[in-house]
């Protein structure tokens, strides 16, 4: 969704809803009838790609309404985080068929081998719990990649099927479709705790509601076909569990359209929401947020929302150059400068001052003459600036010292976005040092949450994920939660507990 779209969404929510109870009831009703063909068809990971450090589309057209955006952000009411406890009701699943929406969107290499099975392994506790409670059958549904609404064997869940059997140490029946008479028949007849994995949901345009033709034009699914698709998914089981936090922000058919009387959160979903609730609603202080990323304009709502909650904010990564240019007129060379986001820098800094939030910026940088691992590497401080033909791709040792000092002070840490282009070894120093610092903090008993996406990749790449309090499985979902948005996949659950975010 664009920044303008976020603005309109927040404006509508502010005008129409007087309290969270109204937000919850109205959102729940709305999500059940939402036309998913109008939604963006991008994937759940919204974090910047490495190339965005070099070139970003800054012509977003938001300059003309930046003042109104600021006004809306000041009014924006953050909804409570909603969690669900129904999954652990005793005998709730006995003799029932259970549909579990999981997120098995795992990375594959060219040989179709899974390179990181975290998302599969993270769902095992929910599957095993339901089976231990006497479920008649467990039906697992997921997407994988972007097959564009049609069957494409490149995105088959067959590799996931094999890995799932290996992890569970039991047989899993893999079906070649996710809807239809044959699938319904097999699922209805399943018994004795049988586990069934459906084929990729996105092999059907009705899952996302749209696809693109050969020319790149959007094709929308027929609403009647979407209805039939959702009805077929609904016919597969008695109880619905959403354990796919990574797609909870998508109002796709398998997320909001399975119309069963009982819709509950899985153990992974509940764990995700519990951790974010602790951090955002009742954190031990000082509370530190670390934000990287390429463009300020992508993080305006996120930064504004966090400024109402944190004590310290580290701004690093590509967007730091925009802040430094606006606030200090620093020479940044060919480093990323986000003109659209620059319009809101002073507003955000002023809000930080009003809320007594300390902002920590990098003060030195590792530079390069090109975006390449073999680039000529240099060093620059903010006082001297970056030469006109160079770009900053990482922070320097003085910046790391400042970041470590802030991390040492904090009792609660939320990290979203690395400080450098860690994908290129010469520019991974800052990211490695920051990871070491938050791991040390976590080992000292402080709460450290990594908000999915590229930052989760960092923790996994350097073998530190198990040393962090919580590494989220959701990139875009965690971002939207941190921005204060209601997640469609949570709003439709039938039994909820609310935790005030005020």
TrEMBL record:
<dbReference type="GO" id="GO:0005524">
    <property type="term" value="F:ATP binding"/>
</dbReference>
<protein>
    <recommendedName>
        <fullName>Phosphoglycerate kinase</fullName>
        <ecNumber>2.7.2.3</ecNumber>
    </recommendedName>
</protein>
<comment type="similarity">
    <text>Belongs to the DSS1/SEM1 family.</text>
</comment>
<dbReference type="InterPro" id="IPR036043">
    <property type="entry name" value="Phosphoglycerate_kinase_sf"/>
</dbReference>
<keyword id="KW-0324">Glycolysis</keyword>
<comment type="pathway">
    <text>Carbohydrate degradation; glycolysis; pyruvate from D-glyceraldehyde 3-phosphate: step 2/5.</text>
</comment>
<keyword id="KW-0067">ATP-binding</keyword>
<dbReference type="InterPro" id="IPR015824">
    <property type="entry name" value="Phosphoglycerate_kinase_N"/>
</dbReference>
<dbReference type="Pfam" id="PF00162">
    <property type="entry name" value="PGK"/>
</dbReference>
<dbReference type="GO" id="GO:0006406">
    <property type="term" value="P:mRNA export from nucleus"/>
</dbReference>
<dbReference type="GO" id="GO:0006094">
    <property type="term" value="P:gluconeogenesis"/>
</dbReference>
<comment type="subunit">
    <text>Monomer.</text>
</comment>
<dbReference type="GO" id="GO:0043248">
    <property type="term" value="P:proteasome assembly"/>
</dbReference>
<keyword id="KW-0808">Transferase</keyword>
<dbReference type="GO" id="GO:0005829">
    <property type="term" value="C:cytosol"/>
</dbReference>
<dbReference type="GO" id="GO:0008541">
    <property type="term" value="C:proteasome regulatory particle, lid subcomplex"/>
</dbReference>
<dbReference type="GO" id="GO:0043531">
    <property type="term" value="F:ADP binding"/>
</dbReference>
<feature type="compositionally biased region" description="Basic and acidic residues">
    <location>
        <begin position="1"/>
        <end position="19"/>
    </location>
</feature>
<dbReference type="GO" id="GO:0004618">
    <property type="term" value="F:phosphoglycerate kinase activity"/>
</dbReference>
<keyword id="KW-0418">Kinase</keyword>
<comment type="function">
    <text>Catalyzes one of the two ATP producing reactions in the glycolytic pathway via the reversible conversion of 1,3-diphosphoglycerate to 3-phosphoglycerate. Both L- and D- forms of purine and pyrimidine nucleotides can be used as substrates, but the activity is much lower on pyrimidines. Negatively regulates the biosynthesis of acetyl-CoA from pyruvate in the mitochondrion.</text>
</comment>
<keyword id="KW-0460">Magnesium</keyword>
<keyword id="KW-0547">Nucleotide-binding</keyword>
<dbReference type="GO" id="GO:0046872">
    <property type="term" value="F:metal ion binding"/>
</dbReference>
<dbReference type="InterPro" id="IPR007834">
    <property type="entry name" value="DSS1_SEM1"/>
</dbReference>
<feature type="region of interest" description="Disordered">
    <location>
        <begin position="1"/>
        <end position="26"/>
    </location>
</feature>
<comment type="similarity">
    <text>Belongs to the phosphoglycerate kinase family.</text>
</comment>
<dbReference type="InterPro" id="IPR001576">
    <property type="entry name" value="Phosphoglycerate_kinase"/>
</dbReference>
<keyword id="KW-0479">Metal-binding</keyword>
<dbReference type="GO" id="GO:0006096">
    <property type="term" value="P:glycolytic process"/>
</dbReference>
